[in-house]
């Protein structure tokens, strides 16, 4: 959104160039726009799809499923600007207990699950980016022998909070935007038309 949080912040050249790039992905490669991710995931596992963009938390599952069919690698997510960042989803631990003894027990658990070692264990089991930077030391040997897991941690310096629209309509806004992006990628809307529609739709849902 804009700095005043009164409307969209992508009604500019950055927003337009983003939609132009998304349209190029299909226009210049002649690839089909997916309506369901499952068959394309299966194509990747079968070695028939060149690359697949997914959360790093899927690294372990992908590696296990691919097995010895081919050599799977991971790559840093491309950043299109010198000051660009990567939004992170992540998790949160909330203590709702009112009883002091329960609060203390819950706090001890929070410290345990967010510790460097616990986060390292999660990263090893899933590929997830550890939320504790100190986990890097515990993961050095693991990352050295399992480079597909190391890519996410290497981009920790670029991490930024996942943006949330005010008013509790974030999911509804993202669904509406996704439909417009789909039409841009299919060529039903030009990037200019798509941007205007995204701005109008987003602002209307915010008000």
From TrEMBL:
Membrane-spanning intervals of the chain: none
Cited Gene3D superfamilies: Periplasmic binding protein-like II
GO cellular component: ATP-binding cassette (ABC) transporter complex, substrate-binding subunit-containing
Alphabetized UniProt keyword annotations: Periplasm, Signal, Sugar transport, Transport
UniProt cross-references to Pfam families, sorted A to Z: SBP_bac_8
Domain of life: Bacteria
InterPro entries in alphabetical order: SBP
A molecular-function term among this protein's GO annotations: maltose binding
UniProt KW Coiled coil keyword: no
SUPFAM superfamilies per record: Periplasmic binding protein-like II
GO biological-process terms attached to the record: maltodextrin transmembrane transport; maltose transport
PANTHER family xref list: MALTOSE-BINDING PERIPLASMIC PROTEIN, MALTOSE_MALTODEXTRIN-BINDING PERIPLASMIC PROTEIN
Family the UniProt entry places it in: Belongs to the bacterial solute-binding protein 1 family.
Protein name: Glycerol-3-phosphate transporter periplasmic binding protein
Provenance organism: Rhizobium tibeticum
Taxonomic path: Bacteria, Pseudomonadati, Pseudomonadota, Alphaproteobacteria, Hyphomicrobiales
